[in-house]
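Dear Dr. L.,

I hope this message finds you well. Following up on our conversation about the binding site, I have prepared a predicted three-dimensional model of the protein together with KG4. For your records, I am including the exact sequence and ligand specification that went into the calculation, followed by the structure tokens. Please feel free to forward this to your student if that is useful.
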Amino acid sequence: MLAIETSCDETAVAVVACNKDGVAYRFAVEEYLVHTQIPVHRKHGGVVPEVAAREHAVRLPRLLDQLSSRLPLKKLQKNVDAVAVTAGPGLVTSLLVGVEVARTLSYAWKKPLVPVNHLEGHIYANLLTTDAAVNPQFKFPVLALIVSGGHTELVLMKKHLSYQLIGSTRDDAAGEAFDKTAKLMNLPYPGGPVLAKLADEGNRTAVNFPRAMLDQKNFDFSFSGLKTAVATYVQKNKKTIAKDVAASFQEAVVDALLTKTLRATEAHQPKTVLVAGGVAANRALRERLRTSFAEQFPKITVLEPTIKYTTDNAAMIGAAGCVRFLHGYTKDWRDVTVDPHLPLV
Ligand code: KG4
Ligand code: ZN
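The resulting structure of the complex is given below.
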């Protein structure tokens, strides 16, 4: 599978091999290239959609060129079964660059296309590994906590490629909360990872920020009040210690995410629980997930993606694309379009 990802501010291509043995999948990431646009967007303090799309248009052909110097395009054409591409959700003009290149390759190479939902890619990133001795698998039902820049969702999977939304954010996504809070604390872009790094050095019990919606019996989240609470706290307390504010904020986010995930586990009895999306790179979240489940649900398999497959990349699109391909979900290049709001469910 040749895979292409251009949904936001990372231009990425990958070549992923996959086979199915009974119910088990085995993946090998043969090529992995990511070009990050962070330096381009830093001066604007956030992703500028038009700039991102122009960057993808410049960078994607260069990445394919780079790929062809390692793996001649003729050979790639011969060996790939299909081209997988992120069709949404994401920034519409950014998505269009990846999809148009994928459609062109599909037409020229006479290979089918596999449109992939970006969030599905994040979920399937959990099956990729850098250690050939480990071969993680989904034992169904799977409960997925999706935490990215634009989404915060609890999703139940009873089988491959089948999703049931059981909870979501009412306002900001977890990653968005990290990014906006970092901005109001005057931290540089990209806010989330910078704030997280600062938080690792701070005291997480310094400030008791609110954990919204925990008294409600649903599996939904809300993070905009937390962001406002940090803003008010920073305004009122002129001599705040940034690392303590960051650690206390992070603790509140992790608390809310874990509380609802544990409750959803109790209600839906999954055999596998996984975390997916950029915020899954957060060390505190990973640790809490591991320790909470080891204590409360030791029989459940907890998966977390390898860091290089956690934030946006094309290998995860290749993994989901392979599974789709093996299930017969392919499309003609004429029938593939982008959908910036493509739903997972
Ligand atoms: O999945 P992703 O790379 O792109 C989207 O699909 O949105 O997620 C990006 C989000 C951003 O909001 C970023 O701030 C957040 O993930 N993020 C983190 C960390 N690394 C990335 N948030 C908290 N801690 C991190 N270490
Ligand atoms: Zn993403």
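In brief: The first strand starts at residue 2 and ends at 5.

With kind regards,
A. P.
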